[in-house]
Amino acid sequence: MRRRVFLAAACCAAAFPRLARAQWQAPGRFARPEAGSEEGGLWSMMDREEARLRRSPFALRDPKLQAYVQDIACRLAGEHCPDVRVHLVRTPFFNASMAPNGMMQVWSGLMLRVDNEAQLAAVLGHEIGHYLARHSIERLRDAKSRSAFGQFLGMFGLVGAAGQIGVIAGMFAYSRDHEREADAIGASLMRNAGYDVAEASKVWENLMLETKARPGEDASRSSPLFATHPPAEERQQALAQLAQASPGGVANEAPWREGVRPYLHEWLNAEVKRGQHEESVALLSRVMTRPLATAEYRWARGEVYRLRAKDGDLDLALEDYRGAAALGGEPPETHRGLGMIYRARNQAAEARASFQRYLEAAPDAADFGMIKSYLEDLRT
Amino acid sequence: MRLAASVFAVIILSFAGLAWSGSICFGPGAIRLAPGFSSLRKGATVVVMPTNIELFSISGGGVPEPKADWTEAASTHFKAALLAKRQALGVNMVELTEKDADELAEVNVLHGAVASAIGMHHYSECGDALFALPTKGGKLDWSLGETVQPIKKLTGADYALFSWVRDSYASAERQAASIGIAILSLGRAIPRGGVQLGYASLVDLNTGQVVWFNRLARPSGDLREAGKAAETLDALLAEFPIAK
Amino acid sequence: MRTHMGTLVAAALVVVLAGCAGPVTKVATGEQTVGDRLDVSLEGPWNQVRVPALAPARVWTMEGLPLDRLLVYSGIKNEQLIHAEGPASRKNFAFRSTMQPDEIVAMFEGMLTRDGSSFKLVKLEPADFGGAKGFRFEFALTRRGDNVQLSGLGFGTVSNGELFALLYQAPRLAFFPRHQPRVEQMARSARIKT
User: Fold this and answer.
1) Which residues of A touch B105 (CB under 8 A)?
2) What distances in angstroms separate CA B19 from CA A14, A105, A163, B118, B243, one per listed residue?
3) Cα dihedral A239, A242, A247, A251 sign
4) Is some CB atom of chain B closer than 8 A to the CB atom of C6?
5) What does CATH list as the number for A261-379?
6) Are the Cβ atoms of C144 and A164 closer than 8 angstroms?
7) Judging by DSSP bridges, how do beta strands B45-48 and B159-170 pair with one another?
């Protein structure tokens, strides 16, 4: 377990000359840098941000889920396991980051999007790759020569410090070389932890489905990770090659789906509330096809269609809500959604039935009073 | 000049999380006491909340770079200077552990917002604050109410002292650049350092009232060395309501 | 020299906080009319802060913008933006006369969370407002920038196709409980001029 990681670079010498020249070996654990060094400054600042994150209401403090993700990160990090501290954060964007001091953030938007442990491992392994290869220090030196320090901090997911998500638009990307290196290291870490490397490229393919769906604008707006790790054609190819070089390994879909089940509704709701309808439809259409996908996913897509309300959307929403109800185990909001649409279409009987069902299924709902009054209005 | 101003803005936006008002004049600080409060009781206990200090070096390119050794030193000097002052202030001082700070996170965060509000709406060295709130009648009248009870419970103190400092210093290369510009601008001196921003706030743990608040905003000051750090602390605690 | 630096810095800050606030005026106790159309009866004075970025909503506060804010919407028309159009990167929100209470609340939720803050509806129920049938809602908001946890209270109604609403938020500790009664009283006293 705690052995040095070697990268079988034979196949990839052409794509990764830098790596092939000297067989890459994970360095030993990093010592805390001298306080006076540039790295030292960053480290201390990250320590303070970590304390802030620990105390933040946006932190997802679930011991079971945290331990689960921590274990995956730990097995990936090998000898560096004791230095990696996983923090789960409630924010509906696809991102994970690792700061030079070992603080790792995993955002709930990422946990919603990965289908299995292997895909999560691909992203975490990639971040650990940046950490092991000390890319951030090179980035810091670069940042000094441009006035982009705030954006640099933003790389470590310090959205609070850097302010709004809008800052991400100008995010500081790693160089192509760094990306390739982190991909290669990440793939190697994945394989050594027993995961199927073929899942790595799927993560990026899936994300591209979403971002391509967004009308007009820059893909980087929706995903900080996407902004710092632009998936170019060659990266896809490189990842595919890495997968071919290391066949085998597990995906572990079942335990992952089981592990995040308690949060699925919350995360789906947060995704819907993002208000990025096109991206949400692309995402939800994809994840709905997961084996044994629950009614939650169909309800969520129904919500997005209902809120988008473009031509034909209300019919699509009805279809999804009904589909969710047919599956069973649908969230009560399914019937509220149906009721809203029937009400808007003056289908009073159907609206009454749906609202009634909602109120029965969710007696403690925040909007109980409002929906009850809609129901009463429909009776008159 | 413009570079320094933009650095100022970067510091605020990137690291402060507080909104400081436009009415910053680099004059001597105007200190305010809450109505009805003039001094601490002799022998009162003050809990020193962990000081929120960050020190930066500004490189030639104007980018603020956090300096761990400076920040560490500043925190040490600040604490030492504060403890040294306790006799002069006539109070007992207790510190808050990191663990206790975890428990008191929400109150701490709340105080940060209160300090922001005071800084924005009350504080001014140049006559009436630009955004003074008429209902406050020019008084320092902000209270956290009962929310400070947990601090009192954990520490047994009568008052809590909060402080926050952001300070930036010109690196050698920047000073050289500054001097170069100074020569070019016909000898008009340009402040060699960056900007020092801070506040110190004293809260009565029985009532939650902010009984004393001082805001610092000036181009100079130095927390990196003990001697100069003491000067900054003096400025931050100017007209502190010494116990009588 | 210090003044020179100070002026430059002040100018930079005013630019940086452009649209943040202008002068503050007192809203006196007694009968007040907001935007020609909404009468309220105040039991105590408020402070009105000019915030161009939030126009046409009025911004009132008791303790200062970093702490509490009351947004007063008076006669927002169909298809009108509830706040001034911002930079292209910022989402805008337009009121539509056909909006139901849950949709109006969703619109406010979108506005309150566009900076990454997180919103949770606590209660939404019918209530009279302004002398018409309307709604009342309570919410919790965790502010992204500084992690302050806020409680919120809102009232609204659509009268002749126009939106009238009050939206109040303050830290859930100390400040919200302190001022909530006055906001409730203000809402009860509100009358829409027809």
Assistant:
1) 55
2) 52, 27, 12, 10, 32
3) negative
4) yes
5) 1.25.40.10
6) yes
7) parallel
- C41 - beta bridge partners? C31
One-character DSSP codes across A125-156: HHHHHHHHTTHHHHHHHHHHHTT-HHHHHHTT
Report pLDDT digits (tens) over A127-182. Answer: 999 999 988 777 666 665 544 555 555 555 544 333 333 333 334 567 778 888 99
Contacts of B144 in chain C (CB under 8 A): 173-174
Dump the DSSP string for C30-85. EEEEETTTEEEEESS-EEEE--GGGTBSEEEESS-TTT-EEEEEEEEPTT-BSB--
SS3 label, residue B29: coil
CA distance A323 to A93: 27
Please name the residues in contact with A322: beta carbons below 8 A apart, sequence gap of 6 or more. A338
- Chains near B (3 or more Cβ pairs under 8 Å): A, C
What would the pLDDT profile of C131-177 be if each residue is shown by its tens digit? Answer: 999 999 999 999 988 899 999 999 999 999 999 999 999 999 999 99
Domain parsing of chain A, residue ranges = 17-251, 261-379
ipTM confidence: 0.87
Q: What's this model's pTM, rounded to 2 decimal places? A: 0.85
Angstrom distance (rounded) from CA C92 to CA C81 = 7
Residue spans of chain A under pLDDT 70:
1-24, 36, 38, 139-173, 217-233
Tokens 């750090």, located at residue: B229
Interface list for C 144-183 with B (CB within 8 A)? 145-149, 171, 173-174, 178
For chain B, which residues make up each domain, given as ranges? Answer: 2-236
Query: pLDDT tens digit string along C7-29?
Result: 333 333 333 344 444 589 999 99
Quote the CA–CA distance of B51 and B71 in Å, as a whole number: 11
Q: What is the distance between the terminal CA atoms of chain B, rounded to a whole angstrom?
A: 45
Listed residue (A164, A163, A182) closest to A173, CA to CA: A182
The domains found in chain C, sorted by start residue, are 21-192 (3.40.1000.10)
| Inter-chain CB proximity C174 and B26 less than 8 Å | no
CA-nearest residue of chain B to A49? B15
